[in-house]
């Protein structure tokens, strides 16, 4: 790195050094020679100067300092706070029942929203918070229960519990659908799953490439994505599992479900009969059928078929043109090629990496806006946070990685917007 960032200097004062070019070269040589796979963290430590009582370490090893004895101010208007936080972070108003992730809330904004809520209400929120409570309405409901259950539970309306032997219908057998079905069964709720395709796994089957890997560390993405873990929880074999591992785990979880999974099945209509009773009309093998269920959860995912954009003169282009998904571009085609990638989403970054790893001479990304690309270390740090990391701290972690690439992170649109709000 050309210059030491203030973060590096602070780390040195507490006993953590930085990796020199020589040390980095030796470490890479040893790792390549060993043939080992996985994620390795290498850092020089000055044991005589090591201080473990620093913000990051304290955040990871100390008991949750946010669980204090002070009562939450019950006059806080949860609805206004959550809605205002969403507007400030996304820059626009989102309907209470709309999925935040589908409405444009990206990874960094998700962490920022979770941290802002956790810090304000002095509560501990799991890394999967916005997956478990994906819209404003469910967030508000959860916070009411969480913050008022000990001091004002009598004031909360008690939901009427309706016992039913009918299953809950889950639409979609991707990772999200299987995880939801698995957790319902753990709670003693019968389920039935309907999937339009002929297999489980969702987009990991339909869109992922063989080179695709999970781009966040696996504990934050799984079939038991809850705060209180147990020995029976599903665990990944690697930190950033591949397409094949995710599909294999999806098939295993599907096999362990007690309820049935109907493949090649299309849900046509859902009609409410009464509370906790719905009539579902679906099509399977060309026949229309009906089923009564006690509830419906649609987990069809936020990733959809890519947009096919034809550019002027494309038909006369002699090179390879593809969408970069579903293995439509053999890696060998990147050898000595000059590559142009349109867009800056996850598949764009993946194809850039694949192209360079397979001998491309140059890769150019053309996009309307630059998305933030999170280094693995920054991602790990965010998911290890107890809800107290600000956007400024996240940017501070990412800055040296951007500087190493000759980029200024403060020039990114999302960071500019957050900087203006702070």
Which second-level CATH architecture of the largest domain applies?
3-Layer(bba) Sandwich
| CATH fold annotation of the largest domain | FAD/NAD(P)-binding domain
Question: Tell me, what is the CATH class of the largest domain?
Answer: Alpha Beta
The largest sheet is: 4 strands, parallel
Q: Order of SSEs, N→C?
A: HHHHHHHEHEHHEEEEEEHEHHH
What would you report as the Rg, rounded to the nearest angstrom? 24 Å
- The CATH superfamily name of the largest domain is FAD/NAD(P)-binding domain
- Spatial separation of the terminal alpha carbons: 29 Å
User: Low-confidence segments, ≥5 residues, pLDDT <50?
Assistant: 1-7, 51-75, 150-159
DSSP helix fraction:
25-40%
Structural class: alpha/beta
Mean pLDDT: 79
Strand content: 5-15%
Number of domains: 4
Helix tally equals 14
How many β-strands, per DSSP? 9
Q: Spatial order of the strands in the main sheet? A: 3-2-1-7
Q: What is the molecular shape?
A: globular
Protein name: NAD(P)-binding domain-containing protein
InterPro entries: ACP-like_sf, FAD-binding_Monooxygenases, FAD/NAD-bd_sf, PKS_PP-bd, PP-bd_ACP
Family: Belongs to the FAD-binding monooxygenase family.
Cofactor: FAD
